[in-house]
Amino acid sequence: MYRQALEIRKQRLGEKHPHYAGSLNNLASFYEATGDFAQAEPLLQQALNIRKEVLGVKHPDYAESLNNLGAFYASTGQAQRALPLYREALQIRQETLGEKHPHYAPKPA
What we know:
Helix content is 75%, strand content 0%. The chain contains 5 helices and no strands. α3 packs antiparallel against α4. The longest helix has 19 residues, at 37-55.
C-alpha cells in the first residue's frame, strides 16, 4: 500500500512535491521496520533532498526529514552520523516553531 500511495502521489503531484516526500518517508519506515535498511536509507535521503529543494532549509518539514534520517542512523548503530542531523533538526525547530512548541521539545534519551 505504501508503494501504491507513492505511485499515486508521483502521478498526481509529481516527484518534487512535499507529499511525495512524505510517501517516500512512509515507505522507508516500512523497509526499516522489516530490516531492509538498504532500501530505506536512499528513500529517506531522497525525501530530505526534496524537502530541502522545495521547502528550504528552515522549514519544519525539512527538520522532520533530518530527524527521520538521524533516527535511521541511530537505529542502525551509526550514532556519529545521527547526532549532527538531530542537532540541525532541533535548531531549525527552535528557530521556526519556538521552544514551547511540542515538536521542538527534545526527546528524552
